[in-house]
Amino acid sequence: MKKYLLMFLIVFLIFIKAFSDDLIDYKDYILTDSYNEAFSMAKLTGTGVILLFSLPGCGNCEDLKEYTFSNSKVKDFLSDKFVITTVDRNDEKMGYYPPDPEKSKYVIEYDYSYLYSIFEIRTTPTLIVLDNNFDRIGRIEGFVDSEILIEEIERIICGKSSLKKGAVKKITVDDYKVLRNAGIKFKALKYAELLGNNSPDTGINFLLEDFEEGNISVLTEYALSNGINVYYIHSASTEITNIEKQLPLQKEESEEEKTVREIEEECSGKTDRQTITITQARQIVSQNKSNPDFVIIDLRTPQEYATGHLENSVNLDFFSSAFENTLRKMNKDKTYLIYCKSGGRSIKAYDKMIQLGFKNIYHMCAGYEGWINE
């Protein structure tokens, strides 16, 4: 019996490991609310565009992002064919329609909310698929798993040669800088080196350092037969290493540095959150002492809460496994004032609450440390 139990456990662990290996962070390749930027990047890369229309608090939208788009097979299939961005309903963000201003005399910039009407969004999530001419070629509504998504996209692009790999594209130095700063990676090499490779990696964008346009027909045939994208900068003397020196240093930001930066931006009023100072917080708390629809939430751990907290505050541990489930059950029409130790956890909690449909939230960015020190 123990032998069978051990075998079952080993098989189960192998299954879990295989499943987790397939998961990636969808934000690695999907832009957030970057409609105009997505079309600009697609224009430079010669790819199509997928618009992911979603709403805060939409469970199917989150599942589509967290499960379907977080599958590595989906990323591998889509990322070389499309630039993908989310489009949340937002009255402040703007996007062009038609999406390429250079192709039409009559281009208007609409807010994101109106784009929902233009693209006839009836439910969320909805994926609008556009080819590299920015013509609509398909839509997918509702949640679908990774296998169905790949099948549906394959069906949509079937016969669309413009979305198949095998492009040769001339770009400027400025174009290259835009693409590099957007996180698109290239492998720079000599023309002869590329043609000497009988099986080039189809997952790489190649950039030629010394290409002469007299060889364009040979290069185009090579790119098509091998299914690769090749870029070149029209200047035989252009050295990629010199261009790289002009680019800003892309230093990886640690989680700690990111949190510090977010708190600084938050407390200086540079974000869209409803941020309040300690003085404002004291006034709001005083004005709402007898208001049953006003709730103060302390996001720290129970141990931190026990050392001191705002009067009448409710402890909801941000790190608790029940945190999100508890939020889902709370009255989203009440007014909440949230705080943690110094702003890091409360920023993430604020965003999660907005995502879940909470309407009135005050964020005390300086946290409990600011409260007791002012």
Explain what you see.
The protein has a 5-stranded mixed β-sheet, sandwiched between helices. It has a 5-stranded parallel β-sheet with strand order 12-16-15-13-14. The radius of gyration is 25 Å and the shape is elongated. It is built from 16 helices and 16 strands. With about 375 residues, the protein is of the alpha/beta class. It has 3 domains: about 25-160, Glutaredoxin, CATH 3.40.30.10; about 170-245, no CATH class; about 255-374, Oxidized Rhodanese, domain 1.
- The CATH class name of the largest domain reads Alpha Beta
CATH topology of the largest domain: Glutaredoxin
Strand content: 15-25%
Structural class: alpha/beta
Secondary structure tally: strands: 16
Count of alpha/pi helices:
16
The radius of gyration computed from the alpha-carbon positions, rounded to a whole number of angstroms, is: 25 Å
Indicate the low-confidence ranges by residue numbers.
Answer: 14-21, 249-253
Structurally, the number of domains stands at 3
What's the CATH superfamily of the largest domain, by name? Glutaredoxin
* CATH architecture assignment of the largest domain: 3-Layer(aba) Sandwich
- Quick check: average pLDDT? 79
Strand order of the largest sheet: 1-3-2-6-7
Give the % helix: 40-55%
End-to-end separation = 65 Å
